[in-house]
Amino acid sequence: MEIKPNLSLKAQQDMELVDKARKGDQLAYGELLGRYRDAIYFMLLKMVNSPIDAEDLTIEAFGKAFKNIDQYTPNFAFSTWLFKIATNNCIDFIRKKRALHISLDQTVDGEDSLSPSSLIQSDSLDPESSMINQQKIKHMRKIVSRLKPRYRKLVELRYFKEYSYDEIATELDIPIGTVKAQLFRARELLFNILNRTQEKP
Asked: Is the pLDDT of residue 150 over 90?
């Protein structure tokens, strides 16, 4: 790969690492990850204001970049390309999350929530509010029940029982990375189910 002379020294070093990564050098992938992981994470943290989501999105950004590394061209710095992937992926995540919340809320009222516990903000809710909250939870459970068993279990543990990633990994005896990846997939499936539901006349 031709190194562009107008690139900075760091960008040129990145280009060399990309070239090695394309040839299957795992150490090169690791070095690229080490160079930009923190910068990507803190950028995403500002966008989503959630350490857990920022960590998930950081992993996804690098996953997408490394999967499509052959599409990278040396017309601009690798870091520019990587940050663009991370930003676009994060924007998609925010849109889907917002759409999921709105879709759930439109079936009952205008409040904004995903976790059942956050629906019940006080022990002294009036009867009407309590009924609305119960309707929301019932609707959410109905949608979740349409997922495949492995995804349904993950969503129930995470959002209904409010388990941490570590607790879910222990409960299901699977790696924490698998928990995160499958939960992300489960959220996508929930979003698709909601879309199909809304499209029906």
From this structure: no
Residue type, 117: S
Q: How confident is the model at residue 14 (pLDDT cuts 50, 70, 90)?
A: very high
The CATH number that applies at residue 126 is 1.10.10.10
Helix (H, G, I), strand (E, B) or coil at 39: helix
For range 83-104, the mean pLDDT: 79
Which domain range does residue 134 map to?
110-199
Q: Between the CA of residue 53 and those of 105, 106, 154, 168, what are the distances in Å?
A: 22, 24, 16, 16
Residues 6 or more apart whose CB falls under 8 angstroms from that of 156 comprise 144
Among candidate residues 83, 84, 94, 88, the one with its CA nearest the CA of residue 38: 83
Residue 158 has pLDDT above 70, yes or no: yes
Nearest C-alpha neighbor of 72 from the set 81, 60, 85: 81
